[in-house]
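Posting this for the archive.
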Amino acid sequence: MIISLSAFFILMSAMIIDTSAFGKKARNIETNGIGKDEEDSNDDLMPRFAEPIPNVTVTIGRDALLVCVVENLKGFKVAWVRVDTQTILSIHHNVITQNPRVSLSYNDHRSWYLHIKKVQETDRGWYMCQVNTDPMRSKKGYLQVVVPPSIVDRDTSTDMVVREAANVTLTCKAAGYPEPYVMWRREDGVNINFNGQNVNVVDGETLHISKVSRLHMGIYLCIASNGVEPSISKQVSLRVQFPPELTIPNQLEAAYIGQDVSLECHTEAYPTSINYWTTERGDMILSGMSVLGEKYEAYTKHGEDKDYKRHMFLKIRKVNRTDFGSYQCVAKNSLGETGGQIKLEEIPAPSTTAASTPAFDDENTIKKIDDEDSSTASLGGSSSGIAGAISGAESLYQSSNYTATLSLGCILLSFLYTFKFRS
C-alpha cells in the first residue's frame, strides 16, 4: 500500500498529542512577561535529532542501513519517507510499504533503523526521517547505490581478422555507476602504434588504427573501471592477414663428404603457411613428415617473438657427392606463395694425419743415436766419453724409473747435438 505525502501529513497531524496545547497556553500569557521563557522551556522538552542522518554508499546487491537518532521522543511518532517518490515507508513501529526488501528496527525508542536488503539502482535517492511535532521536524540522508563496471557485449567489438594495410576500429562499451572509464592496451604489454606514436595505453571507448600491419597483430584488452571493485576487462583478438615472406640467413652452405649439415629458412605468413623443401631434382620434402634415421629430416619451429613467424630446417645426414647442389624452401598460404634457394657446396675433409713426436724409450733409438755420434766422434771427438754416457743411459732405461730415464735421454740427446755442432 502506498500512501501519498498529503495523506501522510493528515495522518501525522491526527497523531499529534495534546502536548501542543502547552505551547498554545504559553502564547496566551505571553503578555504577562513570562510567556517567552515558558516557550523556550517547552521547546527543550520537545523531540530533537541527536545527529544528522549520514549519507550511505552501498554496492548494488548488498544491504543498506539508514539511522535516525531522536532524543526526547516521548509520545511522538517517527516515520521514514522516500522523498523523490513521496512514498511512506514506515510509521513508528509499522512498515507501510509493500516492498519486501524494506524493514524497520529500533532501540529504546531513540535509534530508528531503516533496512533495505539487496539494494537496487531504483533505491538510490533521498530518505527522510520525520517526527510528528507541530510543526513537523525532519532530517534527510542520501542513499547512493554504486554499480561495478560491466562490458556491454552487444556494443563491443569481437575478434577481428583483417588484411594488412586496412583501417581498423575497435570499440568497447561499458556500463556502471559512476560512469566507467575505458581504456585499451595490449595483453602482452607491447606498445601500440597509435597516431604515429608508440603508446602503452589508449584512453577512450574506441581504438582506431590506420593502415594496420602485422606488428599490430595480437590480443587487445578493453579495461573498464569506475572506482567500484572489481574492474573488468575483455579480450579482443586482432589478426592481420598477409601473403608469405621468406628470408634466408645463409644462401651458401658447405660440407664435406660424410658430414651432417642443416639448411635454414625463415618465413612470415598469416594464415600460417604450408612449408616444404625441394631438391635440385624437384623431389619434395615436407616439413614435419620426417622419420629419424632417413636421409633427410625437415621440421619447423615457431618464431620466438611472433606467432606468424616460422623457422624451417632441412637436415641432410652423411652428405655424399649426389647431395651437393641447390635446395629450395617454399612457403604457401591462401594469399600467395614464395620460395628461396640455398646452395650446398663441397669442401675438403679435414686432415686426420697427426705429427709424429721423437721417442726416446726405445733401445733401437738410443742405439741409432750411438751410431750417429760414433761417426761424429771420428771427426775429432772423444768416442770413449760418448760411449760411457750411452752405457749409463742404457742401464737407467732398464731400471723401473721410466720418468727419470726419459729425462736423462733428453739430456743425452742435447749433449750429443752440442758435441756434434762444436766438432
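The first strand starts at residue 48 and ends at 49. The helical segments are 5-14, 20-28, 35-44, 363-377, 383-397, 402-422.
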